[in-house]
Amino acid sequence: MIDSLFFLIKSAFKNVFKNWLLTIASISILAVCLVVLGSVILIIGNINVFIDEVGNESQVVVYIEDDLGVEEITRINDELKAISNIGKIHYKSNEMILEEYKASLGEDAILFEDLEADTFRNSFVFNMKDIEKFDQPIFEVEKIDGIETIKERRKLVQRIVEIKDVLMFLSSWIILIFLVVSIVIITNSVKVSVYAKKQEIWLMKYVGATDAFIEAPYFMEGIIIGLVSSVVAIISQIYIYKNVLSPILSDLGFINPITIESVLPIVIIGFLIAGTVVGTIGSAYPVKKYLNV
After folding, report:
1. 124, exposed or middle or buried, with CB in 10 Å at 0-12, 13-18, 19+?
2. pTM, to two decimals
């Protein structure tokens, strides 16, 4: 068992080094594909964090009619609570708003001592649980009796969501193209290995070697290419994110980039799995087709 495993690994590495030019091309293309995939996911992750932050900071303010009594204010509060996707609700009377306003002025508050609470309006303030599901709750809030106006930042949120959707659409096609190219190159690399050993394969079959035993080194070759590509991609991704993507996101001024360390385990596991799967797929076709010698 150990001897067979050693033979399998030895044969796979021999094939990898023998066709070094195609191997380097396979590793390079697949590594680039993985880095593009990782970069897009990291950028989208940062955008999602920003959207969540906008959702937390973009409070919806609902101004109510001035002549409403306690019972009507309570009714509005209950109706708001019944609407899905609305987070914690705060009622702010005009007196409370006046005090908050004076507190925000600091020492300059003395200049507004004569300012009366009637200058401000009673209101309810709340956040959206899911900022991407913004329209339906607002539509339901607008139907509540006693509400005069609604202040919200819907356009900003919609613009951010649209940018994210476009980015995901474009990145999906880019990633698909890179994956196809990677599989094709790995397929050609393994195909050359199989074709170059047609005579040896025939002899192995003649002496009774099973197809699985003959195929195993070529599958292992694809896996080795995938794993090496993954390692190269992980190192490249860390460097590119720290020195290129993160500074660019910081320079935008409104995104506080997540650290690569916080998602590094996910990046490592994801790259290793993706590289292994692509390497296996790339080696499967030529092994099955070209072993019929």
Report:
1. buried
2. 0.63
